[in-house]
Amino acid sequence: MSPAEPLLAAPPREALWFPRFGAPPPAAGAPGTRLICFPYAGGTASVYRDWRERLGGAVADVAALQLPGRGLRMREEPYTSAGPLVAAVAGELVRRGLTRDYAFFGHSMGALLAYEVACALRRRGEPGPRHLFVSGSRAPHLYGDRAEHLLPDAELRDFAAGIGALGDGDRALLNGAYLDRRLPVLRADLEVCNGYRWRPRRPLDCPMTAFSASDDPVADAAEVEAWRAYTSSSFLRHHVQGDHFFLTGDGPARQRLLRELRGELARLPRAAGTRSEQREPSWTY
């Protein structure tokens, strides 16, 4: 829910789905893992604007997804159901050749989208992500029991404030024109989440790391732990101090999140196809 950040110039279609915030992307075929980041409900790609710098040599690039209705896509209608949105994102990743040596990160709604896009790519016969990072999100089968998208505007503003969507420095936005413009996008994203129904499928085969927060009213530790069943590979959960939006500030929780991401990504085998066949034990701390 942060105000849009200025974007660097980019080819029109690339700027729509994956705006650039810093250095140009690596040349085609360059070695290294690309981290593809999915936004939370009502969020924009700008929340990941400094991740390429913060993750350093652990990644070849960071590509942050910009959904319709925000940023350079302000005039586009936002999606209100998961199926068409997932198909569109998967198609764009394939079209742009981004399904080689990549990992996914998603926070809240973004975690749900990342999982569904990984399943969609698998159905298409594309290589899966080398690692899936989920943050601040209940496991997929726990979605679909809420109805915040039906709240009147005033109550939706209160809901956004109550889960930490507005930092202490942004309280003026509660009654500002900026938030009024963003409410339709937030409402549409919440409709995507609340209308979602999980369909049983075999687990993904990539390692998974999950992040839960101590004061998160949207996804508690047990609900985040339930992601364990969604991978046949290793699963690790980190528990941090903070609310639902611990990744948007620059406090200890965000610093730990980036440190753990950097470490996990740096440990990925560099050459495609060299992933170890030995499974690590599942464990949580």
Give a quick summary of the entry.
The protein is 31% helix and 12% strand.
What does the model show?
The protein contains eight helices and seven strands; from the N terminus they run αβαβαβαβααβαβαβ. Helix 3 (82-95) packs across helix 4 (109-123). Residues 1-11, 167-174 and 271-285 have low confidence and may be disordered. It has a domain at 12-127 and 195-210 and 240-268: 3-Layer(aba) Sandwich (Rossmann fold). The radius of gyration is 18 Å and the shape is globular. It has 285 residues and is an alpha/beta fold. Helix 8 (252-266) links the parallel strand 6 and strand 7 (283-284). The two termini are 30 Å apart. The protein has a seven-stranded parallel sheet with strand order 2-1-3-4-5-6-7, sandwiched between helices. The longest helix has 18 residues, at 177-194. Helices cover 31% and strands 12% of the residues. GO terms for molecular function: hydrolase activity. One of its GO terms (biological process) is lipid biosynthetic process.
User: What share of the residues lie within helices?
Assistant: 25-40%
Mean pLDDT, to the nearest integer, reads: 84
H/E element sequence: HEHEHEHEHHEHEHE
Which fold name is given in CATH as the topology of the domain at 12-127 and 195-210 and 240-268? Answer: Rossmann fold
Beta-strand level of the residues, as a percent range?
A: 5-15%
Amino-to-carboxy terminus distance: 30 Å
Number of helices: 8
Shape: globular
Low confidence ranges: 1-11, 167-174, 271-285
Number of β-strand runs:
7
Decide which structural class fits the backbone. alpha/beta
